[in-house]
C-alpha cells in the first residue's frame, strides 16, 4: 500500500472521528492502530472490511451506553429541569416564562427542548406545559420563518 493511499485512509478516519466526537487521545490511539492495520492489509478491500466491522462495534457500544445514560442521567435531569420550568409556566398565565411577551430565556428553553426532542423523542412526555411553551415560541411568525430556513445544525 502506498504512502499516498495510507494518508487518505488516515484522513478519512479523522473526519469520521471528529463527527462522532471521539476524544483526542482515543483518536490518536485508533489512528495509529488503523494505520498499522492498513500497512498490513493486502488490499483496500481488506482494510474497508476491517473498518466496517470496527464501526459496527462502535455503534453497538453506543446504543448500549445510550440506554444506560438515558436511565441514569437524562431522565433524572429532565425531571428536575422540566419540573422547575413547569412551575414557572403554571405561575404565568401568558404562556411565557417571564412577563407577557417572549424573552431570551423563552428562546433558550424552547430551542433546548427542540434539540432534545431530536435526541430523545419522548423528552417532553408528561410535561404538556413545557411542550405548549416550546410550540408557542416556535410559532412566532418571524421565528418560525427563520427556523424553517436556517442551516441545519445539531447546536
Describe this structure in words.
Helices cover 77% and strands 0% of the residues. With 155 residues, it is mainly alpha-helical. The protein has a domain at 72-149: Up-down Bundle (Glutathione S-transferase Yfyf (Class Pi), Chain A, domain 2). α1 runs antiparallel to α2 (24-40) and α4 crosses α5 (128-138). The radius of gyration is 22 Å and the shape is elongated.
* Sheet having the most strands: none
Structure summary, number of beta strands: 0
Please, what is the oligomeric state? Answer: single chain
Backbone structural class = mainly alpha
Share of residues in strands:
under 5%
From the coordinates shown, what is the CATH architecture of one domain?
Answer: Up-down Bundle
Mean pLDDT: 74
What's the CATH topology name of one domain? Answer: Glutathione S-transferase Yfyf (Class Pi), Chain A, domain 2
Pfam families: GST_C_3
GO biological process, one term: glutathione metabolic process
Organism: Ancylostoma ceylanicum
Enzyme class: transferase
Map the helices and strands.
Layout: H1 3-20, H2 24-40, H3 44-91, H4 104-119, H5 128-138, H6 141-149
Short description:
Helix 1 packs antiparallel against helix 2 and helix 4 crosses helix 5 (128-138).
Properties at a glance:
transferase; Glutathione S-transferase Yfyf (Class Pi), Chain A, domain 2; glutathione transferase; mainly alpha; 155 residues; single chain; disordered N terminus; 77% helix
